[in-house]
Amino acid sequence: MKNILKKGSKFFLTALVILNSLMNTLPVHAEETTTDENDLDTIVELGNTEDVFPDLMPQSDGISLTDTTGTGSIYAMIHIANQYGFDYVQQLYVGDKTVFCIEPMQLFTEGLDYHQDTAKWDELSEQTRQNIWEINYYGYGYSGHQTEKYYVATQVMIWQAVTGTWYQPYYTDGTTVYDISNEVAVINNLRTQPQGRPSFNNQTIKMGLNTPVTLTDTKGTLSNYSITNSNGIRASVNGNNLTVAITSENYDKSITFSRNFSARDVNVIYGSAGYQRVIYLASRRDPSPNFKLNFNLMYADIEVEKQDSQTGTKTQGDATFNGATFAIKDTSGNVLETITTNGSKAKSKKYPVGTTLNVCEVTSPEGYLTNSSCNTVELKYSGDNTPSTFSTTVKDQVIKGRIEIAKTIDKEKYGLFQSNVQKPGEGFKFDIILKSSGKVVSTLTTDEDGRAISEYLPYGTYIVKEHETKGYDTLKPFEVKIDQNEKTYFYNIYNDTIKAELTIYKTDSETGKRIPAAGVEFKIKDADGNYVTQEVTYPKKYTTDVFKTDEDGSVHLPSPFKVW
Length: 564
Prior knowledge:
This protein is mainly β. The chain contains five helices and 43 strands. The longest helix is centred in the N-terminal third of the chain and has 16 residues. 29% of the residues are buried.
């Protein structure tokens, strides 16, 4: 302390002191807390100087001096550059607590005005306050450092942190250097070690079930902490890497990391308005105590889409994707739920990411064959890119069948009794129409054998409609429902020829009246220009292409004509 009066046995105490955090809380007289719960620091008013430091002895000039026997041993002294006097490095106490000065050349005073001032600690930069905390922690308060030289080294380093000036300590003779170089080097070396909590402290990790995630501590302080076991959480450390995994849906939401060495809070006391009349306590919490790592198990659902194995998202015929049912099974085959498509899709409930499930079709939709294969769906964890919905497509084969037509028509009368003989109907055409849409999906033409067969047509109800053919009856349209796979729906169709008997009359060209002339001969040509021949069976059998009128001037052909 600066000895202004040049009295060897009396000296001024420093205004600001830092309390060794290994000690208990200081007794306070009047408390006024000004702190933010999210801040590291708390400021409390302790009281007047004479209450905080009862060993102070008042002087007539209002400046208080102290009895050195009440404050502890004087270890060293420092000279104040460009000032008259010096300051001591002395073991100081507040009550039974060891404290340190952080600002030289401040005087304790009493009386005068009562000044309230809580800003001094806040005016120090964050880095300066953190430096004070580290020096205190790794200095005199550190395990094995409770020696006189570490006390002096801690005091001088704190002064330097606050003022930016290095004060070389001397023995109390004022000339012999007090060597603390080794202690300063040890403290600084400890301070170069990684400080604070690991870089991932208090984060929330989203992950899947049994999907290990490795976190790297970029600050390199992970080794300073031990992990407290948690239910459903597996954690292991390898250097600066922490690997964690959620092993059960019934898991603790966090794990706790406990620091391997005890925490210490920093307590700084200072006076108001540059005087030491009123003393305030500024407490800084340990910036790196225990912390937690939080976990959030991710969940996702499965969207199953029904598709056609040939046409994809488009149905065929009257088939539909609606109403397909699927079982969601675990890898042991247990059914977890059953879902049904509404339209072409169905969605499951949520399952933990990291789970592998099987999607198996139970009932196919109308018009489709059931797919007997199961789709394996892995709800794969991919960090922040993990989707909330995983998709799978189940493709079914549509039911298909064919329509076959056998067409027959009448042949000319044959034999003694003029029986009708059928023959294949070649060249007849039939449209195949999907009833629900009215669209012609195929047109069949019978071959020389009177046969026609469609390609495989998808599930549905179809209308078979025959084209009109001159000279033949037209078949009334009929329906065919294809609902069995690979079945041929066969229809034997008979069309009778449209025929008419022909009678020829001889008439007058002017009057239109019939001329009853017998024996007039006629020849008749068909549509192709060929003469028509017919067979006469009575009174004798012969074939002729010449036809004669009878007595009334008419001729009746023996056989009907096919109408073209």
